[in-house]
C-alpha cells in the first residue's frame, strides 16, 4: 500500500513539474528586433489559419 501511495505521489509531482515548465515556456516575451537594410525586422511567432478555397 505504501508503494502505491509513493508511486501516485511521484507521478503527481512529475506531472506538476512538466505542466509548470510548459506554461513557463509559453509565456509571452517581447519580440526581438533586428536591423534590416531598409527597416527593422520583427522576430515573432504568428498563428495563421487557412480556409480552403472554393472549387
Provide the spatial order of strands within the biggest beta sheet. 1-2
- Provide the low-confidence segments as ranges: none
Mean pLDDT figure: 76
- The chain-level structural class is alpha+beta
The biggest beta sheet reads: 2 strands, antiparallel
Number of helices: 1
What's the shape? elongated
| Helical coverage, percent range | 40-55%
Count of extended strands: 2
Task: Give a structural overview.
With 55 residues, this protein is of the alpha+beta class. 44% of the residues lie in helices and 15% in strands. The protein is built from one helix and two strands; from the N terminus they run αββ. It has one helix at 2-25, and strands at 32-35, 40-43. A hairpin with a 4-residue loop joins strand 1 and strand 2. It is elongated and about 70 Å long.
Briefly, what is this?
The chain has one helix and two strands.
Name the descriptors.
15% strand; elongated; 55 residues; single chain; alpha+beta; two-stranded antiparallel ribbon; 44% helix
What's the SSE blueprint?
Elements: H1 2-25, E1 32-35, E2 40-43
Antiparallel strand pairs: 1-2
Amino acid at each position: 500500500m505504501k508503494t502505491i501511495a509513493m508511486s501516485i505521489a511521484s507521478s503527481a509531482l512529475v506531472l506538476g513539474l512538466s505542466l509548470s515548465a510548459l506554461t513557463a515556456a509559453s509565456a509571452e516575451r517581447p519580440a526581438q528586433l533586428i536591423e534590416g537594410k531598409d527597416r527593422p525586422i520583427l522576430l515573432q511567432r504568428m498563428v495563421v489559419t487557412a480556409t480552403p478555397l472554393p472549387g
